[in-house]
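task queued by scheduler; priority normal; single chain, no ligands, no partner chains; default sampling; output format set to structure tokens
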Amino acid sequence: MSAQIDQVLAQAANDPDVMETQEWLDALEAVIEKEGPDRAHYLMERMVDLARRRGAHIPFSSNTAYVNTIPADQGEHCPGNLEYEERLRSWMRWNAMAMVVKANRVDGDLGGHLSSFASLANMLGIGFNHFWHAPTEDHGGDLLYIQGHSSPGIYARAFLEGRLTEDQLIHFRREADGKGLSSYPHPKLMPEFWQFPTVSMGLGPLMAIYQARFLKYLHARGIAKTDNRKVWAFCGDGEMDEPESMGAIGMAGREKLNNLVIVVNCNLQRLDGPVRGNGKIIQELESDFRGAGWNVVKVIWGSGWDELLAKDKEGILQKVMMETVDGEYQNYKAKDGAFVRKHFFGKHPKLLEMVSKMSDDDIWRLTRGGHDPHKIYAAFKVAQDSKDQPTVILAKSIKGYGFGKAGEARNTAHNTKKLDDEAIKAMRDRFQLPIPDDKLADIPFFKPSDDTPEMQYLHERRKALGGYLPQRRPQADEKLVVPELSAFQAMLEPTAEGREISTTAAYSRVLTALLRDSSLGQRVVPIMVDESRTFGMEGLFRQIGIFSQVGQLYEPVDKDQVMYYREDKAGQILQEGINEAGGMSSWIAAATSYSTNNRIMIPFYTYYSMFGLQRIGDLAWAAGDMRARGFLIGGTAGRTTLNGEGLQHEDGHSHVFASAIPNCIPYDPTFAHEVAVIIHDGLRRMVANQEDVFYYITVMNENYAHPGIKAGQEEGILKGLYLLNEGGKKNKLRVQLLGSGTILREVIAAADLLRDDWKVDADVWSAPSFTLLAREGQDVERWNMLHPAETAKKSYFEQSLEGTDGPIVVSTDYMRTYAEQVRAFVPKGRSYKVLGTDGYGRSDTRAKLREFFEVNRYFVTVAALKSLADEGKIKPEVVAQAIAKYGIDPNKPNPVTQ
């Protein structure tokens, strides 16, 4: 009684009118009881608004109390058979453990993760049993971005379902022989199982947000019915520190993506230790998401806490819950009930009194919300029913749940992959597995017969939801007709006399022709990141419109212009603003639509090449993992093609990055006909043949004349090399000059200099892809190594050049590494000299930059002459004469060091 008096006195000391305060509180209580919490909330918001308009300073807070968002008496209870579900989860926990521990007893370096699934098992079970639809005729299927480190648990479930064999589980993380299971979700390695890769961490939530928006896009444009589908993304609380995880939540709130659910598994730990040892990650994330317009559902406490919270009339328990930091919460679950009694409830005598009749075991059994099926179900149901907001569920769990002293809630939990016999026995006992002691050393997988009630229940639940998940569609059912190459005839012909265009303009014209195609036009998805005007593509604004769920609520400032900015509910362009990661995520959603939506889409993501693969390289790698199909267009590409821009704008290395992605098909075309042939080939391979490749094409903004295509050049363009201009035959000396992109024009000019100034004839080769030449050559090289008794094959590069004369000189607008890829395939006895733009970019004119980086016509000429001198065909003095003639400073600094 004295404590209550003390509390009243303390409140009165800070309250000039205690009675008035009590009257307001009583009135609010009456509103809640008679009209409900929504009415009370409305009245409070009106009062706060009035106070602020009258000048009162009322600080904003987007946080709520550290309790469950859904009151105990309002959450829907899970309708399933919880006894069966608990046993199924226990079997999955055991099999997931057995899979990882077995693998590491064979080879201790294979690794694997157990603790993430251990903390997620209840959440995943509720989703699989009650919420997530597989694709059917009536439902396109829900899309699952599953937390990467929880893969063993997903395999364990699929094993019980009969979709994976025991042999596959035994070969977890041993895939080289073609029968194992990938470490994490990898569609590239398991193309009929995993829908999406979710590692590297942070990519899952980012891609999920744009995937949800793309579903809205498809529905608005009438391409697919997606209004009953949800995107669910699971990620860890530590993962939310990745900028990609949080970077697009504002877009999701602004776009009201009610088809999106992110579940943050708040087990309070990352690899090295606590996520927020001195703070509260759930409160932090609640503030971030709520402020961004999300529906936030906190699932912190299990049902056992409901009675205690109901007794907490003075708010002491809630106060202690709020003041306790995550480092303490982690420590509680690493100890025992007695420790929790002393260190948590012992923070206030009234709390000790509250649990005085509870044993230490009772206290220990007070679960966190992430392990309570009813709390999880209620949260999932709220998320599923959301009408106008994306939902984030912040579910508090225990990392390594079920491992006891072997790793539960400990800093080492993330890396736990080996358990001793005692820990295995403890886990067997905790989850009541019917495995005898004499079999424990073998860690046998457990799978009861299909006629047991639990197994029948497992299959019935998935049958009710349309089938098993995760599952992936490797090919779309539909067939689309790709037009003939002649559809791009205007780009195949020479430019009119006196007419000059850029390859960017050529690409735009090919795209425009494609948009008009009756079969493919509606499937084209132009994606821009605020650079349409840079690339001369603003004409598309009016032509096909920019996608907006609300249309255009304003009159654009340039409405009187032909190419005004037009937003439309059925717009075709995805305009992502200044956001390369968002643009790439939209592209990935469209590029994998054949799988996720059974609709083939053709995305063209056009961006500054410098801000592409360098900035979003991890996403590009994920796109390869997802077997994406589409076009990445690197505009204003090359180190020297962009006038006046500087170091952070000039790209001399994107083709080096692209070469690292095995199913990326990269090209650096020079002429319009090359652009048309390459894009047409991409359509043939990705749309007609449904091959799992994607194209990276660099285009430039430099205007010049284009020669048009000659019969028979198509094959060489696509393979990466063809003879563009055959040199004269008057002179005794000859060289082979190769180039790509705009520097090929410098190579052509060098051929004229060699002929006119030095009596050297030169054949000029266009090399749209040194990377493809290198890949083909390496394939031939491998075949020869493995077939030593058979006639050796020759690479296409070698075949193309072996019948020619003279040294080979290459110049591109990229690092020398790009063209150095094919050195191994140069015909024997031939010299091979590469010029490139190594070093940082800088601002100047094109001509000056090409001189600075030593890739212009004069340096190509000098390189050719030096190669001839090295072969003894001309005297070194001739090279010196050329250096002097062209005004080259032989002592100029190396551009790499400048």
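post-processing summary
- Residues 1-10 have pLDDT under 50 and may be disordered.
- Residues 82-106 form the longest helix (25 residues).
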